[in-house]
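Table S4 entry, YcnI family protein.
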Amino acid sequence: MRALPAVRLASAGLLATVAVLAAALPAAAHVTVQPGNATQGGYTAVAFRVPNESDTASTVKLEVNLPMDHPMASVRTQPLPGWTATLEKSKLDKPLNAHGKEITEAVSKITWTADAGTKIGPGQFQEFRVSLGALPTDTDKLTFKALQTYDNGDVARWIEEAKDGQPEPAKPAPVLTLDKAAAAGDHHSGDAAAAKPQASPGQAAAASDDATARTLGVVGIVVGVIGAALGVAGLRRKNA
């Protein structure tokens, strides 16, 4: 009977370990900005990564709202075969100055609509690339609220903003974190972040997959070790 406490202890350890490691696994797929950070005051190219979360419907439209409290003078989309991009502009309360020119309106919304025969099907994702600048210097993040429309009429609203000390919302809005520039300089000649190589969206996806695989490997090892411990405890109880 001495082995019974050991069995209970090992079982409790197994449950606790699995719970901790499960919490470390990536959350459900969301619409995100890749890469997730850029440099204040510079120019950057990002991709809005859109996973299709439905098992029965396909994504046929993406709408991304740009933060008008921190407007950007230059917003350009990269052509994507099978998709038509439309840029909407809004008047600015306070004009921007870009290269000595006063800008009175800025892009406030980008809509990508799938052409006939194009879609993001179940188990697939797509990336929509955009060039942005100049990035603001008076904030540490930009939030892009997005709407993902499926061919069955469903709309996933990625518009919830995370709050400090609170769990991640169910439908978080994509966020681009802005880092301070390392040194003053002419950001218009190129993004200051270019001096530090950043992973491409494809490399970021591979890194995420690798991290997931490693985490699952650790879970397997830990479960195997605890399983062996349970086996030993069971043998001891049998022999007792």
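Residues 36-197 form a domain with the Immunoglobulin-like fold (CATH 2.60.40.2230).
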